[in-house]
Amino acid sequence: MKFRAAELADLPFLLEIQSEWPALPQWGADGFKKEIGGLPRSYLAVLEDASALLGFGGLWIIPPEAQVTTLAIARARSRRGWGRRLLRHLIDEAVRRGARTVTLEAAADNQPALGLYGSEGFRIVGRRPKLYNGVVDAILMELDCQR
Ligand SMILES: CC(C)(COP(=O)(O)OP(=O)(O)OC[C@H]1O[C@@H](n2cnc3c(N)ncnc32)[C@H](O)[C@@H]1OP(=O)(O)O)[C@@H](O)C(=O)NCCC(=O)NCCS
Q1: Which pTM value belongs to this model?
Q2: What CATH superfamily is the domain 2-144?
C-alpha cells in the first residue's frame, strides 16, 4: 500500500471510484485533470496497493490554511481503515507545506464522513444551509494542526 500524487493515467480509475458515490460532488474528467496538472496549490493523492487504486483525496494549500477538496475510497474497499489513512496522509502533507489549519466541508447527512472527521479531531465551525441540491446542509469543519 502506498500514497503518491495522482497521474493522468489514473483518470479512468478516479472517475470510476467517484461514480460509485453519486452523492459526492462529481468533478468530471476536466476537474480531475486540473488538479493533476500541477496547479501549485493543489495536491491530489491516490492510495494504491499492488492490484488497484483504493481511493483518492485532494488538498488546496494556501499557507497557513489548507482545504480538503475531496476524499473517496472505492466502495468495495471501504470500511477497512483506508479513508482514515488517506485523510492522515493529506493532513501530514498540508502541514509539510506550511498549513496550520485544515478545513473541509461535508454534507450533513454523510454520517461516515462526519464520523471520520470528528474522530480525527475536526470540529464543526459552521453550517451552510441547503448547499447540496438545495436540500442538504453543508457542515464546515476545521482541524487545528498545531495542537
Ligand atoms: C468517508 C469515506 C472516505 C471513509 O472511508 P473508509 O475507508 O470507508 O473509512 P474507514 O474504514 O477509514 O473508517 C473511518 C471512520 O469513518 C466512519 N465510517 C466509515 N464508514 C462508515 C459507515 N459506513 N457508517 C458509519 N461510519 C462510518 C467511522 O467513524 C470510521 O471509524 P471506525 O471504523 O472507528 O468506526 C468513505 O466512506 C467514502 O469514500 N465515502 C464516499 C465519498 C465521501 O462521502 N467522501 C467524503 C466527502 S466530505
Answers
A1: 0.97
A2: Gcn5-related N-acetyltransferase (GNAT) (3.40.630.30)
